[in-house]
Design goal:
Layout (H helix, E strand, L loop, with lengths): L2 E4 L5 E12 L8 E9 L6 E9 L5 E12 L3 E9 L7 E8 L1
Parallel strand pairs: 1-7
Antiparallel strand pairs: 2-5, 3-4, 3-6, 6-7
Length: about 100
Amino acid sequence: MWDHATVDYLPTEIPVNLVMICQTGSDDVGEVRSITAELVRPGAEPEPWFVITATIDAAENRFFYVSAWLPLREPGRHVVRLAVGDNELTARSVSLDVRI
């Protein structure tokens, strides 16, 4: 969990920096992977937020860094869910409690 963010009004957007740490093996070298971010708003279903692609150039620990604007429409807990490819078992989530 990120903690919380206090905003002056809604709707608005706030800047966020996301870092995803991944481990790759030698069989991944040369492969192109997509990293999908979904946003889950309070009481809502997941919605696509963004997708980035990365070519794996070495078998080792990797990280992916993204600066983005998080769209906010209502107060409450917002969850960002990150997944590599179609691998739902390794998806990770972070959350932010939005307050006015």
